[in-house]
Amino acid sequence: MKYISIMRNQFLVIIMLVAGLAANAQNASNSPYSSFGLGELGGMDHAVFSSLGNTTITIADSTVLNFYNPASYSTIGVGQPIFSLGVSSRLSTFSDAGSENKSNIAGIQHFAMAFSFAKRFGLALGLKPYSRRGYEFSQGVKINSDSLYHKYSGKGGINEVFLGFSANVLNRNGMRLSLGGNLGYLFGKVTNTRKSGLVTSGATVFSGGVNQQELNVKSLHYEVGLNFAHRIDEKHSYSISATYDPFQKIKGSYEEGQYYTSNIDDFQLYDTLTFNDTTAGNVTTVPTFSIGANYNLDFKGRKGQTNELNSQIGFHLSYSGSDWSKFENRFDANFANTFLNSSKYTFGIQ
Questions:
Q1: Among 147, 201, 204, 219, which residue's beta carbon has the most beta carbons within 10 A?
Q2: pLDDT tens-digit readout, 309-324
Q3: Phi/psi at 6 (5° precision)
């Protein structure tokens, strides 16, 4: 009963913290590629997994909260809940046609809590970024005797409050098979803006047109995972992990407006030409399958005064593939999918 009371109090604390973060969390990006779809998928790198070459799904350890593979929650030690807070930063350099631009971002990568119970079940709760958008660049175009100035920018982010559950469906003879899933609620908005102004000699204020597209997301999302671990003997063990984020329709609302203005940088002067507001559509996720393996080699260490200190070396590798041909944007009648499928290979030593 004491343990249940402690966990209830911890849940109240995390719910309040998640609610506070959810109300204020806006995840930025500094990549022009974030202009597509829901933005740049995922949060910034997790410190634990970036040190393993971003091999995220293969760790199922009692000391790490791995929300990338929900099957890992049941491996957390009973009576040893984990609180995890990640803060990340990224410095990027972009170059094109001889020009170069540097930018950096920093923000909360995640906030989560997990614990196991009844020796075979695990539960997790938290907040993490699902996607983010952030870019700004400009382009000059000469048409006959006129010069046009185009400025492209994007901002916003989609966050996910998630609840995860896992269970050890097999645990005997040195073998353990865990299955798990995350059920999340996506919320937030991402915006693309294009400003086009007529450049006149000596002018610092441009008149012209503005096109703005805003996607506001409110939808459920889920993913599943598994982990199979086998200890061969005292020195050797391995595990095989897999996760799947299936094709899903993400619901929300979409707004697109076109405006004329005497100053493209002053929103108060915008004169609406056309405006479209619709909820009859959706954006889809990209089906992604990941599989990975981990091999551990244990060494006997020295004995301390009260315990024995052992050492271990682990090798982690994974493959992830995303089928971008399935991506759809039903809000945009002019959308044409020209994306290529993507693959990622990772390797790390621990």
A1: 219
A2: 888 999 999 999 999 9
A3: -65, -45
